[in-house]
Here is the input.
Amino acid sequence: MKTTLNRRSFFCVSAMSTLGIQTSKSASSREEHDKTVRIGIIGMGGRGCSLLRILLGLENTQIPAICDINPKRFDYALKLFQDAGHPKPDLYDKNEYDYENVISRDDLDAVIIATPWNWHAKMAVSGMKSGKYVGVEVPAAQSVEECWELIDAFEETGVPCMMLENWSFRRDNLAVLNMIREGLLGETVHSQCSYSHHCITYFFDSEGKPRWQGEFLLQYNRDQYPTHGLGPVLSWLNINCGDRFDSLVSVSTDSFGVEQYYREHFTKDGAVKPPQVQQGDIVSTLIKTKLGKTIYITNDMLLPRPYDNRWMVQGTKGIYSFERNSIYLEGMSLQSHEWEEFAPYQEKYEHRFWKNAPADVEQLGHGGPDYIELAEFVRAVRTQSPTPLDLYDSVTMSSVVALSGQSIAQKSAPVPCPDFTRGKWKTNKPRFGV
Ligand SMILES: NC(=O)c1ccc[n+]([C@@H]2O[C@H](COP(=O)([O-])OP(=O)(O)OC[C@H]3O[C@@H](n4cnc5c(N)ncnc54)[C@H](O)[C@@H]3O)[C@@H](O)[C@H]2O)c1
Here is the structure.
């Protein structure tokens, strides 16, 4: 099935769903559910394979093509096909540009991109230009130019493209979103978030050589991975639908963690020298929005520590804290000035994405959000409707990679944030998870 969605029909679908117009829904929903969606996957490393495993379990979903420059990566992927009882896909591994032969197939509806960061934007642009829905891993772009190339391709073709920001689909974050939309926190004013995950072995291999992720640390000092933190924050603060990022400042520590890691693991006999990394250990970014709100993001991937995203959102009537797994609502919480447990609120304000999830959802990728995001992505492809997370939000989150680098390079000077919506943030209504 070839995607024939053109710009006009996409905006039509979009406008119809905004207006709540549904085309003979009950009659067509069974038919829609039965429609087979065909997806090609580019990049069959760790992430590509975990997305594949979930996709192979979705009803009426086929994966006729997979692509990687390293054919060894197909071994595990092909076992997943076999275990799931799916036919063997066509394999693409000729060279770095063989992905174009996947994208240009006319039997695919969508492509998923799970390659190294420098490939994301060009592959996604190519996908949109050939009429395929695109699901692209995080972050979607490495530079502000790439952000605009993505937006231009979307506006030219009308083909939806979504960054696969799974933390936007977490059960707790979506319950917080429901609470915010019901006004329980009042007007949201400030949020904080982080990617605090000791990823040193992800950056350097067991002999101390930089992997592809590590190459970015040698070249840049910036927040390389802001989107897991920012995903839920964007909708908590109505970014791109009522407000937008105005400017940001970023500050970085120097680098200490990599050298210490090498001292511990490789350099005792002086055999392996620590690499010269540009990247500081902790990057702190403060974003000011047009409406005078603030967002504080931390990138913290190079010092030993347990995993954390440190989400917090504070409004005129209350505050939610992920670290404490607690909430405080002025006038509602039993004890004034005291935190209360978040769990009962999570249950009460469960998001619709999670209400109909399969019983074993929490076993499916990062405790469930990976399943939810892919199920919603595939639903959008099947019904030819907008993706749950749109490209403006995807690009806004990703732009922090480049903008934080610009600010750090200018001794933490404020850097203006582009308006990727070209002014539509003023009139856009919230759409994510509505
Ligand atoms: N959302 C999440 O929770 C999450 C988790 C892990 C990784 N990721 C993202 O997924 C992406 C992949 O990460 P990973 O950990 O799987 O890395 P990986 O190194 O395990 O896999 C990347 C794969 O892409 C292949 N590749 C490189 N260039 C290619 C090209 N031109 N054409 C086809 N294949 C190519 C590599 O051979 C490799 O197999 C990254 O963008 C990463 O940020 C997201």
Remarks:
- Residues 124 and 134 are 6 Å apart (CA to CA).
- The two ends are 29 Å apart (CA to CA).
